[in-house]
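Revision sheet: structure tokens.
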Amino acid sequence: MQYNEAKTVKVGDTLLIKQSNYRSTHVLEITHNSLYHTFRFRCTDGEFYHKELSLPMPNEKLIQKFIQNPTTRVYIEHNTDNGEWQYHVTVEDSDGFWLDSFPTIEEARAYINKNHLKMANLGPHIEGMCCDCIHKGPCCDFSENEDCIHHKADGSCWIGLGPA
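Predicted:
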């Protein structure tokens, strides 16, 4: 955020941390140094200078920032509670911010490919070990994993480590 924008921020406001995938944080205290034209914000997630933060922005603008950033990593989240829109393309380390939702996993993968996004490495996935085991159970009943996006024809549920 620019210096003039920082002047408008008040204690209690919500800001976005640029280096943490625009994760939101709340302002607890503000220190202004008019000599050096800097603001330092003590927030719920640490202390930041004004250039390390961003004002809140509409989701559409944030989506474009993620798509245009070559370091953005995403994963496909399967949500059975959302009716027909069950597959979300979610940004890694973003407090669950998702770019778009789709009724099928194939459409979610096509969106990722179309926008040249990189898949997050959610390891440590181990060949033959089910996702339930990786994510702290209940585990090893392959019938539990039928809805998993990593479900294989043999019933196992895993993805191998890819390049980071």
